[in-house]
Amino acid sequence: MKTASVQYEWVRIFIAVAATSFFSYLMLRITLPYLSFEIDTDFLVTKQSIIHIKHWRYAFYTHVCTSTFVLFLGIFQFIHRIIYGYKRLHRYIGLTYLIIVVCLSGPSGLIMGYYANGGIYARISFVTLSLLWMAFTAWAYIKVLRRDIETHKAYMLRSYALTLSAVTLRSYAFILPVFVHMNGRDEYIMIAWLSWVPNLIIAEILIRKKWMTI
C-alpha cells in the first residue's frame, strides 16, 4: 500500500513538473524573439506610441526576460519531498523566486500595467495583479521568517497562482476569440481579468482544502 502511495506521489510530481516545463518552454519561445531588440517584434507592434518611453521599454524587457524563470522555479516550492527532504534547496529556490518577483518581474509588470492596452479597466486589472503578486510574495517571506508555515504556504500558493497568469492570459487570448465574438478592446479587458481572477479563486479553494503541496 505504501509503495502504491509513493508511486502515486511521483506521478503527481512528474505531471506537475512536466506541465510547468512545457509552459515554461512555450513562454521562452515567445520571449526569445524580443531579444533581437527590434521595436516591431510581435506584441511591440501594438506599443509604437509608447515604445520611446525608456522606463516602459526597460520594464518590458525586464518582465519578459524574468517571468519565465519564476514560472519554472515556482512549482518546486510546492513539492513535498523538496520542502521537507531538501530544506536548503527549498530555501534557495524560494529566495530566488522572492527576489525576482519583488525586485524585477513585479515592479516591471506594474509599469507595463499602467500603460496596458485596453484602456482604464484593463490597466486597473494589470496594476492590481502586479501589486497583489508582489504583496503575496513578500508576505509569504515575512510569514516564513515568523515560522508561520501554514500561512506561508497559503501566500506562496496565491503568489504562484498569479505567476501562472502569464500562461492563462495567453491561453485565453488564443481560445476566447473562437467562442466569443466581441470588439478587440472589450475582448482584451475580459482577458485581462480572466488571466488572474479565476487563478486566485482556485488557489483559495485549494488553501481551504489544505491541498498546498504536491
Write a structural description.
The chain is built from nine helices and no strands. With 214 residues, it is mainly alpha-helical. It has one domain.
Defining traits:
214 residues; mainly alpha; 9 helices
Binned strand content = under 5%
Number of strands: 0
The low-pLDDT segments are none
Count of folded domains? 1
Shape: globular
Task: Give the H and E element order.
Answer: HHHHHHHHH
Rg estimate, integer Å: 18 Å
Major sheet summary line:
none
Question: pLDDT average, as an integer?
Answer: 94
The number of helices is 9
Oligomeric form of this entry?
single chain
By secondary-structure content and strand pairing, the structural class works out as mainly alpha
- End-to-end span in angstroms? 19 Å
Helix content class? over 70%
Topology:
Blueprint: H1 2-31, H2 54-74, H3 80-85, H4 87-114, H5 120-145, H6 149-163, H7 165-179, H8 184-194, H9 197-208
Task: Give a short overview.
By secondary structure, this protein is mainly α.
